[in-house]
Amino acid sequence: MKLYEIIIKPLSAFGTPLKGDTLFGHFCWQAAYDPSLLNGGLDKWIACYQEKPFAVFSSAWPKFDDDGKFFYAFKRPDLPLSLLFAPSAGDDKRKTFEGRKENKKKKWMKVKEGLLLDFKSVEYLTDKELMEKVRNQATDDTKRIMRGEKYFCSEFTRQHNTINRMTMTTGEGMFAPFTETSFFYYPETELAVFALIDEEATDIGRICAAMEKIGKFGFGKDASTGCGRFDIGEDSELELPSADSPNACYMLAPTVPEAGRFYDHYFIPFVRFGKHGDVLATSENPFKNPVVMADEGAVFMPKSENVFKKPYIGRAVLNTSKSMKQTVVQGYAPYLPFRLEMKI
Fold it and tell me: Using an 8 Å Cβ cutoff, are 193 and 60 in contact?
């Protein structure tokens, strides 16, 4: 498989985070309506998806320019803080505790464009520090708009009303007003999605064409109200990430790891309560079975070096829908190999 980077430029608020499994689901709907996106059509590749994934998407990660060089801001690995931040020699308990509180705020990890992950030199950032770095590359108009904003990604509440045509007002039950939480990025944000593509099935041109349609229609929840719009920027082929003597994998998307392949793991559970989109959204049962995954930022330590021969980890998740038996969930995820030498 080949690895590509696709730049996404948000144009609206989002109701659903841009995670790898949901990007895969949106691509499948595009392929269902446009058979030319996959050689032989979607049914052919879904049938062998368990053995041979045709595309594996990462979650979307901020990309920014810092002193003339491009960096990615990945989620801080889900490792214990004691493994990431060693206490300074000579610190008493109070200073150690205060340092731990400060380090807990550092939710982002700054990684160079080459995707080389080295824990000895990696820099961790708080939301505020990331905001400052992206503010430096913003235009004057954007800086004026974002004045006072402290976070790279801000949440706000949207009110929804449904009018009863009999009374011409809201009411009770399905006509009761309710609120939804959405989030938005600052203007000119660029997000990087990493896509592993089997070129026997498709190519980067067709993947980007599908992504462009997704961005125009809207991604995820509340797309019908204008959420989830984005433009597609440049795409480029990247070398598969590598490291010297790797013994661990940092996950770039939610994943369902294969049983028995890892001797240690650090992750935060993430439960995907999936729901069908498109025409199945109004079917008798649009809801999928919940899928428990390891969230992006998980770290897995494989038993065998053979794991590093493939650029992804995980497995397909089947039998998640009562409305469409062919439904699959992307339990695969791209990863960054690295060497974990720190000890508890």
Answer: yes
